[in-house]
Amino acid sequence: MIRVVLVDDQELVRAGFTMVLDAQPDIEVVGEAGDGAAAVELLRSTTADVVLMDVRMPRMDGIEATRRIVAAGGPKVVILTTFDLDEYAFAAIKAGAGGFLLKDAGPAQLIEAIRAVHSGDAVVAPSTTKRLLDRFALHLPDEERAAPGALETLTEREREVLLQVARGLSNAEIAECLYVSEATVKTHMGRILMKLNLRDRVQAVVFAYETGLVKSGQSGRG
Hints:
Layout lengths: L1 E6 L3 H12 L4 E7 L2 H7 L7 E5 L7 H10 L4 E6 L6 H8 L3 E4 L4 H12 L7 H11 L19 H11 L4 H8 L3 H14 L5 H10 L12
Parallel strand pairs: 1-2, 1-3, 3-4, 4-5
Helix pairs in contact: 2-3, 3-4, 6-10, 7-9, 7-10, 8-9
């Protein structure tokens, strides 16, 4: 059973998510909170696997709450955002969130995202992450960018894989593009995360933007 905590200051939003999630045989909503401070307090006494975290909330926003949850070794955090995109959501990813989920996502996308992050995969489709980061890259100050020299620790093939991940390709699509097996792509991805000391695929995409490997607005496919 996948245990989920919902954090959003709109009770109607939480109620809608709860109806969708509790209808699934493998997902259970184990708690709700109306702001970040309440979420942090709730997770001290509630065991959860995934937190769906809104960004803009009273008392404590989703960024600070995410930072505290991650620092405490808590569950994975998925940021809830609108397609208009809070400029704060990128900061939340930097604070340790595992990815994005659009607030207007359909039930199937919501369920898929939760199951994916629970199993350790990408939180949302890489192409969605890429589109969002295209927008966030415009707000990334130069002083916060990672040193391009960090890329030198990667082999040429690992850099190719990282580039394709940042462009929004799935492992299967990367395998087809580079004429290797999907298992080989997964192996390269594991080495990339280890060498760059990154948690997951989403952080790898952020890293690619920060180092300038991928530029904002750069074509994702082809």
